[in-house]
Here is the input.
Amino acid sequence: MTNPLNLDLRARAELLAYLVSSHLLAKQLTGEWLSHGHVVESTTLWLNTNGGNADILERVMLSSRALELARQLETEPLPVFSRQMICTLFCENLRLDFRSETARTIYQHCLTYLVGTR
Here is the structure.
């Protein structure tokens, strides 16, 4: 039996925040955005870790919007998007660390973005 498609708005925002954060971290560490293969891998990792399931169209939509949002947030002059803060986005288990103000800010941007695109 397969998992039903089960990403509600908050789960989509969390997955989008995870992908945006992954893009921002990759850019800080390597100077490049994540490759398409790494985005697919990151999406699969998040879905498996969180027990989520999404169809291919939803995955592609969120993946493509993640890079768009990461590029927008990279230009924000806010201190939460400094190099030091980006490096604290993830816990040891590769989950977003929502104790971080940066992770919460990215999540809020993603949630607002998704609500505005409905």
Q: What stands out?
A: Residues 9-116 form one domain. The CA atoms of residues 16 and 66 lie 6 Å apart.
